[in-house]
């Protein structure tokens, strides 16, 4: 096997839409990623994506953001505000785990701190398994821990959620309730399986676990990176702080700029299903591996300007170019949660009162409303368990609401 690495922005774009290249980054994380949507290819991927797309419509994300998210956010942030401190990674996981559980279809019947902590522990373990390729720990130990976590998840969370939905689906099939009375979540869609595709119980378990970890892991890290970049940019400048607080469209632009600099995965891997030509002198055989350096591509000066390595929320790009670059991917494996996390890119006609900002922007907005600051007594630390450039902890304190 020969490994090819590319970092040119346009070359990666072309590779991402090439249907002869399949996902390969999560091969080592098969313990949880084998058979989930993200790792499927070809007709299998098309059928699963078509089925699950019944949930992921833009109107749903807008409803989620404007109707469900504010209540969940207030409930989650309240104890942190009372204690006047938080770790952004922990806070980010808690809020996004609850949101992700809702659209994945996992019920939290007890609504207790113990229940939340148990699910949070499981979700963090799923994330560790999914990103096993970048783990610095003994991978066999991690795999065993993930399998144990999946067993606990199945008994304590998945089975009760399935039983509830199967009763509702039965009621719908017997014309006792209407379809719009069914839960609008991934688990319900998979259990109904209206497209009659091949899905077994193990696939359902892994698919739901995948959604839980993907939604919470990437969003928590994106939020923390965005806060870090924005706080550095403000640097005690009252005028900049007021702009962040009073202009949500500009704040969303700041978040997109941070997402460009800090893609959830710094690389994407692909393997060819047949001989593939990537560049003029790059020919891949079926056993080869293509490593796409998203981190470098997102800092391409030809696309993003001479200051591409810097955080610049005033950056102007061509109208067809997304400020977040390749962070969400494009083509078949574009991130399903792009609009949920990042919102919709605004234009000159955008009405701020009706705009979809994405949950990361709304999280940052809420933090700054409560005058969040880095804890001067506790410095943030990088995550040493992974090669990914994420924060391991990021202590903050809250002031009076402004």
Strand content: 5-15%
Uncertain stretches: none
CATH architecture: Orthogonal Bundle
Main sheet, how many strands, which sense, barrel? 4 strands, mixed
Structural shape: globular
What does this entry show, briefly?
With 402 residues, the protein is of the alpha+beta class.
Can you offer a commentary on this structure?
The protein is globular. A hairpin with an 8-residue loop joins strand 9 and strand 10. It has 402 residues and is an alpha+beta fold. It has one domain: Cytochrome p450. The strands form 4 sheets. The protein has a 4-stranded mixed sheet with strand order 1-7-4-2. The protein has 15 helices and 11 strands.
Quickly list its features.
402 residues, 3-stranded antiparallel sheet, 4-stranded mixed sheet, Cytochrome p450, alpha+beta, 11 strands, 15 helices
Helices, strands, pairings?
Elements: E1 3-6, H1 9-16, E2 21-23, H2 30-33, H3 42-52, H4 58-83, E3 85-87, H5 88-104, H6 113-130, H7 139-173, H8 186-192, H9 201-234, H10 238-246, H11 248-261, E4 267-272, E5 276-279, E6 282-284, E7 289-293, H12 294-297, H13 301-304, H14 338-342, H15 359-369, E8 372-374, E9 381-382, E10 391-393, E11 395-398
Parallel strand pairs: 1-7
Antiparallel strand pairs: 2-4, 3-11, 4-7, 5-6, 8-11, 9-10
Helix pairs in contact: 4-5, 5-6, 5-9, 6-7, 6-9, 7-8, 7-9, 9-11, 9-15, 11-15
